Amino acid sequence: MLNSKVEAKTKNIMQAFRQITNVKDNMLRILLPDDFKVDKVEVIVLPFEEPKEKSVLKNSEKFSGAISKETAEKMHNHLKVLQSEWERDIY
User: Fold this and answer.
1) CB 18 within 8 A of CB 32
2) Quick check: helix, strand or coil at residue 24?
3) Segments making up each domain of the chain, as ranges
4) Where are the alpha helices (DSSP H) in 1-91?
5) pLDDT (tens digit, 9 = 90+) per residue, 30-56?
6) Given phi > 0 = left and psi -120 to 50 = alpha, else beta, which region is 26?
7) What residues have CB less than 8 Å from 58, skipping those under 6 apart?
């Protein structure tokens, strides 16, 4: 019984093929790969948009305004205290 459920699931594996092609005179030509063996297909046509280039931002630009000025000042003061501890004589 378990085998029949597994077989049923494997028979329902969807094959998909994606192709980006030019439209000429409102017509498309789609050439399917040799291993795409089916008798009937569903065709969904979507307009293709070129991927937009991502601008590369510096970390300072990415995080500008991420914390308030008050919080930044508290953090800066705390770092000053920590740094001053490094410079004290320990012996």
Assistant:
1) no
2) strand
3) 16-48+57-86
4) 2-11, 59-62, 69-86
5) 888 888 888 888 889 999 988 888 778
6) left
7) none
